[in-house]
Design brief:
The protein is globular and about 55 Å long. The chain has helices spanning 3-23, 79-95, 102-119, 162-165, 194-205, 208-211, 242-253, 274-289, 296-301; strands spanning 27-31, 36-42, 51-57, 69-73, 133-134, 172-173, 177-179, 182-190, 215-224, 229-235, 258-265. The chain contains nine helices and eleven strands. It has two domains: 3-119, Ubiquitin Conjugating Enzyme, CATH 3.10.110; 133-305, Impact, N-terminal domain (Ribosomal Protein S5, domain 2). Strands 5, 6, 7, 8, 9, 10 and 11 form a seven-stranded mixed sheet that branches. The protein has a four-stranded antiparallel sheet with strand order 1-2-3-4. The chain is of the alpha+beta class. α2 runs antiparallel to α3 and α7 (242-253) runs parallel beside α8. 35% of the residues lie in helices and 20% in strands.
């Protein structure tokens, strides 16, 4: 590794640790390998009126010679308002070239939200029509753009020959990851309709070890050719926000017609944010192994194209 790259890597790690320490659970690791992170920012912690998710990917050259690649996610952020905020972030980068700027970006966004809160009415209902159809998937870290009638997504007809596509698909199992007595293992199956998702889950639960897991987190994405949209859903099974994060990873990787289940056997020691890293790494590894995504580099490029976010119910880790 070149000396410059080593220096950038160290500075990135120090900044990531600082952000996690400052913002706690608001700071979310989406993909540790690709250095993709997000943070939910609001105008007020106790009674938020306006909320925005800042998603960033740190290129190897950051902070030395390149800015973070970023995306602003909020259903209300459009037009000139989006352009003004983007210009403000880019101005901060220009004024601080070579320096770590994530904290400055977050606090600038928070200032904008506070000013907006003082000048306007509370934020709009976020349940608006989106480019992708979602089915009751929530993520506590990222504000969701939900379809007005998500249940209708279940009516999508993926193929004329439904008998054929509703056969039980093959299921692959990934290599387990163990950390402090907690074990994580991913399971993958190709799916083209929601019924297959249920069949895969039922088959997995026939395995006593999987059925006895503390959590079986899953997410799936099915591409509907006729609608040119995605049918997708997720479940965290009691593991705080894990389902939404897993689905978000799959969106970033731009995978389709596949479901991933990650089983966690809790070992009695709280892992904190590390549990999300292990869940996503398990999922990412098996998706790469089964050729659903080509490389970490190509996966990272999809970040700028991804426009979907989720909203998960908060539950404690165990």
């Amino acid at each position: 590794m070149a000396e410059g790259d080593a220096g950038s890597d160290q500075r990135q790690n120090e900044e990531i640790e600082a952000m996690a320490a400052i913002y706690g659970e608001e700071w979310c690791v989406i993909d540790d390998c690709a250095k993709i992170f997000c943070i939910r920012i609001s105008d007020d912690i106790d009674d938020p009126k306006w909320t925005l998710c800042l998603q960033v990917m740190l290129p190897n050259e950051y902070p030395g010679t390149a800015p973070p690649i970023y995306q602003l996610n909020a259903p209300w952020l459009k037009g000139q308002e989006r352009a003004d905020l983007s210009n403000s972030l880019e101005e901060i980068y220009i004024q601080n070239i070579g320096e770590s700027i994530l904290y400055l970006w977050v606090e600038k966004i928070r200032d904008v939200l506070i000013q907006k809160s003082q000048m306007t009415e509370p934020g709009p209902d976020v349940k608006k029509k989106t480019e992708e159809e979602d089915v009751e998937c929530e993520d506590d870290l990222i504000l969701a753009c939900q379809p007005e009638t998500p249940a209708k997504a279940l009516d999508f007809d993926i193929s004329e020959n439904r008998t054929e596509i509703e056969e039980l698909p093959p299921i692959d199992h990934g290599i387990p990851i163990t950390d402090r007595r907690s074990t994580f293992q991913a399971h993958l199956a190709p799916v083209v309709c929601p019924k297959q998702v249920k069949m895969v889950l039922a088959k997995l639960y026939e395995n006593k070890k999987i059925a006895s897991a503390t959590h079986n987190i899953y997410a799936y994405r099915i591409y509907c050719e006729d609608k040119q949209t995605f049918l997708q859903d997720c479940e965290d099974d009691g593991e705080t926000a894990a389902g939404g994060r897993l689905l978000h990873l799959m969106e970033i990787l731009n995978v389709r017609n596949v479901m991933v289940v990650v089983s966690r056997w809790y070992g009695g020691i709280l892992l904190g944010p590390d549990r999300f890293k292990h869940i996503n790494n398990c999922a990412r590894n098996i998706l790469v192994e089964r050729n659903y995504t080509n490389s970490p580099e190509e996966s990272s490029k999809a970040l700028g194209k991804n426009k979907k976010v989720r909203k998960d119910k908060k539950r404690s880790e165990h």
